[in-house]
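Open question from group meeting: does this chain pack into something compact, or does most of it stay loose? Before anyone orders reagents, we agreed to write out a predicted structure and look at it together. Recording both the input and the output here so the notebook holds the full record.
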Amino acid sequence: MSFPELRAALVDSVFAELGEDARWSGVADPVRVRRKSADEDETIGRLGIIATSEVLRVRKSDVAAPAKGDLVDMLDDAGVETGEQLRVSGEPRILRNLVWEMPFSVVAG
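Structure tokens returned:
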């Protein structure tokens, strides 16, 4: 097995164990998403601070081209919408492991 194949298997395992089911606008089947805390360096005048924010991650194999404004409805274990809805609030960026990462905001829930 090649390194890219091993990395893909690892990413799939992480999403299977730590991900949550969701329905992504414009995508027919449910997908697995992960919420992750991310640190960002910010500067205010001369003061440097580290701000923590949450980002949403989804595999490229599940969502080929996420976009700012996409809606994500979270699902429970039975595949029923929980009432929690997220909106992609910034431009998605692709990581080396073929996972999209993007900021989001909670719309409902």
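Observations to bring back to the group:
The mean pLDDT is 90.
The first helix runs from residue 3 to 18.
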